[in-house]
Amino acid sequence: MPIVFLNGEFVDSEKAAVSVFDHGFLYGDGVFEGIRAYDGVVFKLDDHLKRLYNMAKALLLDIPYSKEEMADKVLETVRRNNLKDAYIRLVVSRGKGDLGLDPYKCSKPTVVIIADKITLYPDEMYQNGLKIITSTFRRNSIQTLDPQIKSLNYLNNILAKIEAVKAGYPEALLLNLEGYVAECTGDNVFIVSDGTLYTPPSAAGALGGITRATVIDIANKLGIPVVEKYFSLFNVYTADECFLTGTAAEAIPVTEVDKRVIGDGKPGEITKKIIEEFKNVRTLYGTKVY
Ligand code: PMP
């Protein structure tokens, strides 16, 4: 069983207990990060912590550690579990309060760090591509809960995931309220048309993904033009290539959307090049664990 970090202590995950009065549990009041370590290097840890602290700031949630202290705790959690490759989940909730939703009645935030493994999709899908559908649920609007905040309220995305899985698909694409493509349930989306890479801007309802930023850097390095712009399902259906990016999913090709075959139905050449390069750089930008 993994050893987890819980409020300053390292404990057996079986014994790690969070109060039922924790507002993360009662109200989804909190934020989280998903981070990967590759071969003993935590990928872009600083970027993940920057995003975490920014999200907490937006929610007026004071994380009780500095970023440096938190980085140490993340590294220590990976070490305690003797992992070189890991998926790390960092959760900060408002903490224990009463049954009302007033966050100012919560004494102190709860901080949890888990280092474990994750497999989102079978290998076969990384080789041959995902077939996905568009959800009838829309991505949260920036006028409500800003999709930039990875809050503990993922119900919008979970409803889309349920819809996809019930329909026999592993993943769903979400549109924003205006009907523009936003992202998938836990991944950013890219399309390739006539040699140019397109991805929706944050304002369209896409999380500022760290894998997304890495892919944009890779494309720049490879001389592939990248444009952040609003686009519709028409652009997806008629794209030459499509792929998704996310910490857990990494980079995975999409070969069918709503029964429309993308390109020739196989992972595209630019997609493959980017995925290949992603594998090369993922141990380069990070913090050493050991
Ligand atoms: N969108 C959503 C809704 C997500 O939950 C994630 C996963 N964090 C992503 C996109 C991808 O972001 P990242 O590459 O930073 O993991």
TrEMBL record:
Q: What is its EC number?
A: 2.6.1.42
Q: In which pathway does it act?
A: Amino-acid biosynthesis; L-isoleucine biosynthesis; L-isoleucine from 2-oxobutanoate: step 4/4; Amino-acid biosynthesis; L-valine biosynthesis; L-valine from pyruvate: step 4/4; Amino-acid biosynthesis; L-leucine biosynthesis; L-leucine from 3-methyl-2-oxobutanoate: step 4/4
Report keywords, A-Z. Answer: Amino-acid biosynthesis, Aminotransferase, Branched-chain amino acid biosynthesis, Pyridoxal phosphate, Transferase
Q: Which PROSITE patterns has this protein been placed in?
A: AA_TRANSFER_CLASS_4
Fetch the Gene3D superfamilies from UniProt. 3.30.470.10, D-amino Acid Aminotransferase, subunit A, domain 2
Q: Which residues cross the membrane?
A: none
Which GO BP annotation is one of this protein's? isoleucine biosynthetic process
Known cofactor(s) = pyridoxal 5'-phosphate
What is any Pfam family matched here? Aminotran_4
Instruction: Give the reaction(s) catalysed.
Output: L-isoleucine + 2-oxoglutarate = (S)-3-methyl-2-oxopentanoate + L-glutamate; L-valine + 2-oxoglutarate = 3-methyl-2-oxobutanoate + L-glutamate; L-leucine + 2-oxoglutarate = 4-methyl-2-oxopentanoate + L-glutamate
Which Gene Ontology molecular function entries are recorded, alphabetically?
L-isoleucine-2-oxoglutarate transaminase activity; L-leucine-2-oxoglutarate transaminase activity; L-valine-2-oxoglutarate transaminase activity
GO cellular component: a single term: cytosol
Q: What class of enzyme is it?
A: transferase
**Record PANTHER family:** AMINO-ACID AMINOTRANSFERASE, AMINODEOXYCHORISMATE LYASE
Q: Which family does it belong to?
A: Belongs to the class-IV pyridoxal-phosphate-dependent aminotransferase family.
Please report the name of this protein according to its UniProt entry: Branched-chain-amino-acid aminotransferase
- Report the source organism: Thermoanaerobacterium aotearoense SCUT27
